[in-house]
Amino acid sequence: MFDAVRKASHPIEWLASQKNIEELFSDNIDYVVDACDTITIKLELIRICKRKNIKLISSMGTGNKMDPSRLKIVDIRNTSYDPIAKITRKMVKDERIKGKVYVVCSDEKPRVKINKTIPSNSFVQATSDNGTFFVSPSTIPTI
After folding, report:
1. What does the pLDDT average to over 65-72?
2. Confidence at residue 9, expressed as pLDDT on a 0 to 100 scale
3. For residues 18 and 33, what is the distance between their CA atoms, to the nearest angstrom?
4. Is the dihedral of CA 40, 71, 9, 124 positive or negative?
5. Of 56, 57, 86, 114, whose CA is between 20 and 30 Å from 72?
6. What radius of gyration, in Å, describes the C-alpha atoms of the chain?
7. Mean pLDDT over residues 123-132, rounded?
8. CA distance linking residue 1 with residue 121, whole number of Å
9. How far apart, in whole angstroms, are the C-alpha atoms of residue 78 and residue 80?
10. At residue 56, does pLDDT exceed 70?
11. Binning pLDDT at 50, 70 and 90, where does residue 129 land?
């Protein structure tokens, strides 16, 4: 299945900004997968995709969340414990955006700092007092 997706898709990798965001939509696009860290760009992508009726899935924040089994694909209105999702929900509500806005998020409460150190995200190598360990992302939900 993934080979078919790779052959059919044409990923575009560039740094999006308010000045060049419309360039992304100069070609015929069927689907946008947003992994932007910049909130203004993330919100603009949602606006444009909804206006142009382009399917979109947007990643929300997973900082300080360690359990990949808690990742979900949901409508933005059904998110919690996520500051990025909170900003996005407010924009969707304030601008009366209709229809679902699908996001990848975790329903896990963020971990707190331990000894002034923020725990590593579950997809990144992490260290513990006993050495190094990895968390397998095999439980990530699929579309």
Report:
1. 87
2. 64
3. 18
4. positive
5. 114
6. 17
7. 45
8. 27
9. 7
10. yes
11. very low
DSSP-assigned letter for residue 1: -
Q: Which residues does residue 131 pair with via DSSP β-bridges, in sequence order?
A: 128
Do residues 43 and 65 touch, judged by C-beta distance below 8 A? no
Q: What value, to the nearest 5°, has the Cα angle with vertex 83 and ends 74 and 54?
A: 40
- Distances 5 to 2, 11, 54, 63, 86 between C-alpha atoms, Å: 5, 11, 17, 28, 31
**Which run of H or E residues covers position 111?**
none
Distance from CA of residue 54 to its chain's centroid?
17
Say how far apart CA 106 and CA 68 lie, in whole Å: 8
Query: C-alpha 16: how far from its chain's center?
Result: 15
Closest residue by Cα to residue 108 from 57, 59, 62, 58:
62
Which pLDDT value is given to residue 128? 46
More reliable by pLDDT, 123 or 70: 70
Which two tokens mark 59? Answer: 């990643």
**pLDDT of 3 higher than 60:** no
Q: What does the pLDDT average to over 52-57?
A: 93
